């Protein structure tokens, strides 16, 4: 079989796959979105972590600061090593979401019933949410909190950084 014939077959299979995907999406009761919507987390409105969490929850700057000052949570930076080394919340661990497989020993050393606060580069960054979901679902940490303001908000507030 020559290269042109192979290219035609590949084009044919690709075209049929795209067509099948479009048809499937049109006939479904709940079609898949063409563009992924950002995930919205439920936010804890008071300074109390629920006894039973069904998913990671978002916290604001004030609650994050409270937990940090009282040493009532482990802070985890989900950004890459280079960003972490440039600056991070004081005493935060670095578990980069994009390289999480290399940090399994760190994750397994976390106490499952002790709260963790995960952050990254602020509102436009979803590394903290992705890492939070992984730690909650796969590693069964009970109290996973996402600080959505992240390092930029923390630093601009003048709070402790390293």
Polypeptide structure, described:
With 162 residues, the chain is an alpha/beta fold. Helices cover 39% and strands 10% of the residues. The chain has six helices and five strands. It has helices at 3-27, 61-69, 81-86, 104-108, 127-137, 150-156; strands at residues 57-59, 74-77, 93-94, 116-119, 144-147. The protein has a five-stranded parallel beta sheet. Helix 3 links the parallel strand 2 and strand 3 (93-94). The chain is elongated, with a radius of gyration of 21 Å. The mean pLDDT is 89.
Main sheet? 5 strands, parallel
SSE topology string: HEHEHEHEHEH
> Ends: how far apart?
62 Å
Q: Which residue ranges are poorly predicted, with pLDDT under 50 across at least 5 consecutive positions?
A: none
Average pLDDT level? 89
Count of DSSP strands: 5
Widest sheet: strand ordering: 1-5-4-2-3
Category from helices, strands and their pairing: alpha/beta
